[in-house]
């Protein structure tokens, strides 16, 4: 793997995981030393992150990790709903095999196990979510739709972190994902799209509530 690719992958993961939170200035010298690369490949990595919308120019001092505002997230969810509901419809129409039945069962198991899950950050659960996303993309069979969804999911992966500290919301999402998988497995496009829309609306409500609570805490701190 090229040095610029390694730097890009490392920085992207740090941004998505929250290790580099919104507002963090990514100075070239500091990040190059931290990642063990020269400044040229680091600049390439930063340019790619800026193209992704994860960073933005910061007055000649490198780049800064972009903020996550309620307005930005609302816009992303509008696009996500249009794309994901259509993908779920297509997946329900075109699915083959038993993959979605297996995913439904896996999410039902995950919902029962989440309260006792010792996995920091619930990594295994989010890997299961990624499996469902990949299965829907593959079953839908539309490369352009999958590409567009990939970009949206990249940004919303940062938002998902807000649910990781809320076991009740995680259990709800497990049930919602199980419902989506079941509808696709049953070959019911309208039900799959409706279940996806419900999940997205609840996720947006959760983010909005969490963001509002965080703002209020900051004002009273």
TrEMBL record:
InterPro entries: GntR_C, TF_FadR/GntR_C, Tscrpt_reg_HTH_GntR, WH-like_DNA-bd_sf, WH_DNA-bd_sf. Pfam families: FCD, GntR. Keywords: DNA-binding, Transcription, Transcription regulation. Signal peptide: none annotated. One of its GO terms (molecular function) is DNA-binding transcription factor activity. SMART domains: FCD, HTH_GNTR. This is Putative HTH-type transcriptional regulator YdfH. It comes from Arthrobacter saudimassiliensis. The lineage of its organism: Bacteria, Bacillati, Actinomycetota, Actinomycetes, Micrococcales. The gene is ydfH_2.
């Amino acid at each position: 793997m090229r040095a610029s690719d390694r730097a890009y992958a490392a920085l992207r993961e740090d941004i998505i995981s929250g290790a580099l939170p919104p507002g963090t200035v990514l100075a070239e010298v500091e990040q190059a030393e931290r990642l063990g690369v020269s400044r040229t490949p680091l600049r390439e990595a930063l340019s790619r992150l800026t193209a992704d919308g994860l960073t933005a120019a910061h007055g000649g001092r490198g780049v800064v990790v972009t903020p996550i505002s309620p307005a930005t997230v609302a816009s992303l969810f509008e696009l996500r709903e249009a794309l994901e509901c259509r993908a779920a419809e297509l997946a329900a129409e075109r699915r083959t095999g038993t993959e979605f039945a297996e995913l439904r069962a896996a999410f039902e198991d995950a919902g029962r196990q989440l309260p006792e899950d010792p996995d920091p950050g619930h990594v295994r659960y989010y890997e299961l979510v990624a499996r469902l996303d990949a299965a829907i993309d593959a079953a839908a069979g539309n490369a352009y739709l999958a590409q567009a969804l990939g970009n949206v999911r990249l940004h919303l992966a940062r938002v998902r972190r807000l649910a990781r500290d809320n076991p009740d919301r995680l259990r709800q999402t497990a049930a919602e994902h199980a419902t989506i998988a079941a509808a696709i497995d049953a070959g019911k496009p309208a039900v799959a799209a409706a279940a996806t829309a419900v999940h997205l609306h609840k996720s947006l409500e959760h983010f909005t509530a969490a963001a509002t609570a965080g703002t209020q805490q900051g004002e009273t701190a």
